[in-house]
Each structure stands twice: as structure tokens, then as C-alpha cells.
Amino acid sequence: MPISTKPLTGSDFVVEVSGIDLSESQDAETIAALRTALGKHSILVFRQQSLTNEQQIAFSRNFGELEIHLVRQYLMPEHPEIIVLSNVGAGGVKPTANGGAYWHSDISYRAKPPLGSLLYGVEVPPEGGNTLFANMYGAYDTLSDDLKNKVDGRKAVHSYLGRFMAMRDRDTSHKGEDKFELDEEQQESFPPVLHPIVRTHPESGRKALYVNDGFTIGIEDMDEDDGKALLRKLNIHATRDPLLYSHAWQPGDVVFWDNRSTMHCATSYDPVHTRTMHRTTIQGDTPY
Ligand code: OGA
Ligand code: MN
């Protein structure tokens, strides 16, 4: 059966894909169709999947090499391609309270940030714990002329450590979050990088805003305070309601998002419930 897509929002941001079992091997035509759909829609939702670790890795590899995250404490020991986000700890990985509860695009602090990520809901709470997504094509398209002029052709600084320090300084509730406990080698593996603030999606050809609250810490050749103020404005603009999709997880959901044209943010839930998610991350190219 060929795959079919059904929009989940009023726009073409986010489609549910049916007619595909991700545990099976896929032909080149199906992968090409999914790749095109990702560039067009930014978020692909697959329901009622049942995946072993090997199957999630194999399906993800159809789209490129997989990223092995530098913060190794959340990687599955037997399968370092899988990051485990779980409030109870699972698969030999220690628990993390609220990983990703800030607006970000995964690993944007690398010179070649990932093309996309696949998150598999293994065990999810009955309510809450949604993942919010922001449409960064839409964010660029709806920028005022004034803001467009300010950002066109400019670059922003992305850093994992910048986020670590900023969050620690400004929000003490993050003090206990163990994601911030980086050893020196890990700290040295995160030098700041520059990326264009407006990037062109290599497949769709569309422009997307490419800054995020989590990892973008300044703007090249701009005074620090002015840069931070502009970044704040851009983030507020990009996370307005009409640009958002909130994914309410059911067990067996796989959400495949495009990191080049979206940001995402985890939301809270009652911690008496277990939430265990498995993520694979597909390597991408230098943004332009
Ligand atoms: C991620 C992430 C958010 C969530 O897996 O990259 O940010 O809702 N997850 O679990
Ligand atoms: Mn993330």
C-alpha cells in the first residue's frame, strides 16, 4: 500500500502518514517520498508503531548517518545511536527530569547540525508531556520588513555551553538538572559555531528562521545586549500560537521532525506517570 498523508493542522505544517510499518525495510521510492514530505511539511507523525531499537536505527539510517550525541550519559549503552529521555531511567540510562523543556532545534550548536530527529513514544503519560513544535518557515514568512532587514545575511552564534550558563544563572530550578553536568572533555567538544539566521532548506528551497532560545547566544558583529534583545524578539515571534503544533503522545507514536525548519519544546506532566522516549538523530549539512 502506498503511503498517504493527512494534514493535522490547518496549514501544511505537520501531516500524519499512514500505510507504512516502520519496523519493515523500505524501498527507495518510499524513502524519497518521505524525504520530500519532510521538507514540505516539516513534521511527519506515524501512529501505532512497534519498534525494536535495531528497527528504529535501521529506519532512521534511510535518511543519513546517525548522530552519536556528545553528552553520552543519555545514550543507550548497546545502541549509542539512541538517546533515552525517560523520567524513570530505562535501557541502562539514568533518568532525566525534563530534557528539552525549552525552545530549541536539536544540536544546532554543531557546525553541521542534524537534518532531523525521530522520537518514538515508548511509554507516555495519559495526559500532558506534549511536545510543542514551531514552524520556522512560517516564522520567516511572517517577519516584519524591519526584522527581515535586520536578520537577512547575518549570522548568529550557537553554543551548548552558553545555554548551560545562561540557564544556570537565570533559573535556579535547573540547578539539579543532570544534563548540565558536563566533564571537561565534553565542555571542550562544544565550541561556539556561527550559522545564518535565515537558512535555505536544501530540499524545499524555502527560507526558514534558524535561531532558537536554547542554543543561540548572540549575533555576529552585534553588541551583546542588542543581539540578545533581537534574539528574544525573534523567539517570541516564532512561538506565536498560529505557528505552533502541540503533539499529544500516544504510545507507539513516532514523530519525525525536520530540525532545519522547526523548533520544539517539551512540556510538563505529572511525574507519577512514566514517560520514556527513544530518539534517533540524523546528521545534516552545513546551513546556508
Ligand atoms: C528531543 C526533545 C522533547 C520531548 O527528543 O529532542 O527535545 O517532548 N524532546 O520529549
Ligand atoms: Mn530536542
Please sum up the structure shown:
This protein has 288 residues and is α+β, with helices and mostly antiparallel strands.
CATH architecture verdict of the largest domain: 4-Layer Sandwich
Can you write the helix and strand succession as a string?
EEHEHEEEEHHEHHEEEEHEEEE
Distance between the termini: 37 Å
Shape: globular
Oligomer: single chain
Helicity, as a percent range = 10-25%
Hetero ligands:
N-oxalylglycine, manganese (II) ion
Q: Ranges with pLDDT <50 over ≥5 residues?
A: none
β-strand amount = 25-35%
Tally of individual helices: 7
Please give the largest β-sheet: 8 strands, mixed
Structural classification:
alpha+beta
Describe this entry's structure for a reader.
By secondary structure, the chain is an alpha+beta fold. The protein has two domains: 4-133 and 246-282, Clavaminate synthase-like (Double-stranded beta-helix, 4-Layer Sandwich), CATH 3.60.130; 135-238, Double-stranded beta-helix (4-Layer Sandwich), CATH 3.60.130.10. Helices cover 23% and strands 26% of the residues. An eight-stranded mixed beta sheet has the order 1-2-3-14-6-16-5-4, covered by helices on one side. The chain has a three-stranded antiparallel beta sheet with strand order 13-7-15. The protein is globular. The model has no long low-confidence stretch (mean pLDDT 92). Bound molecules: N-oxalylglycine and manganese (II) ion (MN). Manganese (II) ion binds next to loops.
